[in-house]
Amino acid sequence: MDRLDSVDWLLEQAVGAIAQTYQAECALWSHIDQRAGRAQVHATPGFWDELAEGISTSNLSELSDAETSSDFETSARLFRLTQLPLWLTDQWRSPQMVQLASGSLIVPVVSPEITLKLETPGWQGSLQLVLELRRPLQPTPSMESSDAAVALFSTTIQGWTEAELQSLKARMAELGLAYGMVYWHDKLEQSRQHMAMMGRMAHLLNSRLVPDLVVQEMLAELGQEFGSDRVLLLHLTQHVDVVADWARTEPNDPEPLSSLAGWRDAADLFVQDGVSYLWIEPLSDTTEGLRKLLHQLQASSLLLVPLFLQAKFFGMVCLITTDAAHAYALETVQIVSQTMDYVAIALTQLQGYQTPLPWLDSNGVLAGTTMYESDRDPLTHCLAREALDRELKRRSSKALWIDQPPFSLLICDIDYFKLVNDSYGYPVGDSVLKTLAARLQHHLRKETPIYRYGGEQFVILLADTSLELAVEVAERLQQSIRGVSFAAPHGSIQITTSLGVAQQDPNRDTTAWDVLERAEAALLDAKRHGRNCVKAL
After folding, report:
1. Tens digits of per-residue pLDDT, 354-389?
2. Fold identical between 7-185 and 207-352?
3. What's the N-to-C CA distance of the chain in angstroms?
4. 92 contacts 153 by C-beta, under 8 angstroms
5. Which among 222, 233, 289, 523 has the fewest CB atoms less than 10 Å away?
6. Which of 456, 468, 472, 475 is catalytic?
């Protein structure tokens, strides 16, 4: 073993070498987690049927095949078990060399620990590996009958010479040292990768990407770092909303994710019971709703981590895995929990973004100048139609849409403006438009954006404004314009305006364009009622 690529490579090589040296079927148990009831097994063919048939398929997942030599007998296959046999549980409590009723020889490998009681006999440390060996002539009953040990000491072990037992102890001690070295090397490399990921997330927070895209990129980082097939960010209030969704391949959801009832069970556990995370698998001891959720998402496992914004429950991040061989380690949960702070910062930034807002380029990157410094309508100096489209797109982002304070849109239309152009000419019409725009801005707060929507129409966006207040603003504007005289070549002219008002309603509208459509419908209603009035929908 002059090359140590990874823990799995090391154990595959060890299984083949041990099987060849001792002419025995070999199973090497690793990643033993007594609390979660998990383990991985690298096994030669003599154990394959027993592992596959002795444990239900829901507890067993074949990960890979790896040939360690040209002989079939020494090829190693890797299995993942989510239920430990009783004899392995006994080894966890009291690791020692024993022989099972099946004839299997059990040789545990314990990690060394520093202790002040050096004279204490027996094994010291924690269980790293367990080697199970079976000679071809020994019986191979079911796993249930292999739970009882027929001997506790090596002197009573049958079918093995003392020299072989001593040799096995020495080889397994060497393997334990190599395993520990590679294991901690892998852990160090994983820690470096995690730190690099956290650094990339910090960079995202400090980037010029808009917060909505920052959240999406963070989900992608989580999914790629931990081998997930899909990552969801969910917002839970009265409704369940999918804020962001990252997937390796295009998902095929049989029903809308927001309609799945299991999310509520998870939220109750997070909020009422104070659970810090949920790890859901087919055999998990959990609610029926969460087991159904696992099935509905067509997943083999789910990792759910709560998200709080300023101590208020917002929702959760869900890491979805479809590969039964995939398992999340405890440190994965810890890293995902830490990244929730970054996601919370991005969402807080998104919710706190107020006008004037920076422009976004086609990639969602903030441009260097604000919308108040460029891209204005050359005639009225109001913001151009393109600026409105970008602002509506930003406000339609999932993360902002479902949790932002309600905003209102006003559409102001000059009544019979075509008659002004036809009667007095386009220069007078242009003068009316410029004067009207200036008067609108005079009666609004400086930071309130006004957009020239097209022709004689203007759109006003009132952030954090209810429909009732928006109607009051519209009526004030309508009255201020009605009493003004506009200069013309042969005297002055009077104009009136009609206004339509609509407030964002997340239960009815799906995007900011829906709000704009309702404002347009309200404007048509005002025109049907004789113009020179305000209507709201």
Report:
1. 333 443 444 444 444 344 445 788 888 899 998 899
2. yes
3. 76
4. no
5. 289
6. 456
Residue with tokens 């009958």: 145
Tokens of 407: 């905003």
Could you tell me which residues come within 8 angstroms of residue 192 by beta carbon, excluding any fewer than 6 positions away?
A: none
- Half-sphere exposure (CA, 13 Å, Cβ side) for 94? 8
**DSSP H or E stretch at residue 358:** strand 358-360
Q: Which fold has domain 207-352?
A: Beta-Lactamase (3.30.450)
CB 498 within 8 A of CB 413: yes
CATH, domain range 358-536: 3.30.70.270
The letter for the amino acid at 80 is R
Nearest one of 168, 130, 213, 198 to 24, comparing CA atoms: 168
| pTM (global) more than 0.70 | no
Q: Which of 20-24, 105-109, 182-186, 215-219 has the lowest mean pLDDT?
A: 182-186
Confidence of residue 57 (pLDDT cuts 50, 70, 90): very low
67 is catalytic: no
In sign, the C-alpha dihedral spanning 174, 176, 178, 181 is negative
